[in-house]
Design goal:
This protein is of the alpha/beta class. The protein contains 15 helices and eleven strands. Bound molecules: coproporphyrinogen III.
Length: 346
């Protein structure tokens, strides 16, 4: 690997400078992405065409010289392959044609043959690895079972999580059955991504933060642990570092650090310094600039970057990132300013 800063930082080894990548780095804020997206017609076709998925994965690497690429796909491909049928309707976000509404629906969900329906993802990984030619590591990913379950039960995005909370309190054993199936399929899916060539894996737990502490333990953390327990620690002679990110999970960092993972993603509400003191040297930390900072002018962005680096201090094990995905209306020049400031350091 020509640039292995990310791999070393994830393992808390010394690095010459802090590596940076950006959550949702391939996406609508880039005009070159919008062009390929229009050419593909819809989002799922983009994900399912390895050459196009490869092209958009490399766009932010070519433009900004970031220290990692992330597979272009989505966390909702797994429930799509389980039969829920995903569609992205313009202006509406993701919608499932067959949401999960009752115990019978859950009983019918498959735990066999799911990765076979996701071959397009592994083809994309192989195409991307070839195109990257070992410039930077490739991050593979999946959603946490809890986060993916919210979309399956709600039928799409949600604000109140009414349906899944009803299921949680009226029929908790059904929700556990759903999460268990998701954990099995997610582990198989990540294992197949590793076999296809990804160098790092990340679990996105975007909605863990809507749970009470007790329920976070029972319904989110427990199943992330199950996923990590069933994927290989190393492959083809290389360690495959693991990152776990619960948005709104600041209060549970100590619990998360006890998972079999190498790094925790932090949202912008956590303090890196406080997080480092709380988790000790158990894990690396990834984050955590407020994505809103990128609305500021380039000098102000650089100021915030320096503050973040100073706050983290001199410990090994920091990967610079935003605290959540980049917004679609951020000017690409502001990302350039962000990357330049991280490279310059303090
Ligand atoms: O660059 C990258 O980060 C890699 C690709 C990636 C996408 N989605 C592409 C995408 C990744 C890692 C994801 C993860 C994802 N998807 C999450 C977890 C991370 C997070 O942001 O919290 C979640 C919750 C989803 C589900 C999802 N996908 C939603 C709710 C939406 C619609 C709203 C939105 O953000 O656009 C998507 C669509 C989506 N996934 C787009 C992209 C680039 C936009 C689709 C388009 O081009 O219109």
């Amino acid at each position: 690997m020509q640039n292995d800063l990310l791999i070393r930082a994830l393992q808390r080894q010394p690095v010459e400078r802090t590596p940076i990548w950006v959550m949702r780095q391939a996406g609508r804020y880039l005009p070159e992405y919008r062009k390929v997206r229009a050419q593909a017609g819809d989002f799922m076709t983009l994900c399912q065409t390895p050459e196009l998925a490869c092209e958009v994965t490399l766009q932010p690497i070519d433009r900004f010289d970031l220290d990692a690429a992330i597979l272009f796909s989505d966390i909702l491909t797994v429930p799509d392959a389980m039969g829920c049928e995903l569609a992205f309707k313009t202006g509406e976000g993701p919608v499932f044609n067959h949401p999960v509404t009752c115990a019978e629906d859950i009983a019918q969900l498959p735990t066999e043959g799911v990765t076979e329906r996701l071959t397009y993802v592994f083809d994309a990984v192989r195409t991307i690895k070839k195109a990257l030619a070992d410039r930077v590591p490739l991050i593979g990913f999946a959603g946490s079972p809890w986060t993916v379950a919210t979309y399956m039960v709600e039928g799409g995005s949600s604000k109140q999580f009414t349906k899944i909370k009803k299921l949680m309190y009226q029929a908790p054993e059904s929700l556990h059955a759903l999460l268990d199936k998701l954990a099995i399929n997610t582990a198989a899916y990540l294992t197949a991504q590793i076999e296809a060539g990804v160098d790092v894996v990340m679990l996105f737990d975007t909605w863990g933060g809507v749970l009470s502490t007790q329920n976070y333990h029972a319904f989110s953390l427990h199943y992330m642990k199950k996923v990590f327990a069933h994927i290989p620690r190393d492959y083809a002679g290389k360690v495959i570092p693991r990152i776990a990110f619960t948005k709104g999970g600041n209060q549970w960092l100590e619990l998360m650090a006890d998972m079999e993972c190498d790094a925790l993603g932090l949202d912008w509400k956590s303090s890196l310094k406080d997080a480092r003191e709380r988790v000790g040297d158990k894990v690396a930390l990834q984050g955590n600039l407020d994505p809103g900072v990128l609305y500021a002018d380039p000098e102000t962005i650089a100021d915030h970057v320096r503050k973040t680096l100073v706050e983290y201090g001199d410990y090994p094990g920091h990967i610079f990132n935003l605290g959540h995905g980049i917004f679609p209306d951020i000017p690409p020049e502001h990302v350039q300013a962000l990357v330049a400031a991280v490279r310059e350091g303090v």
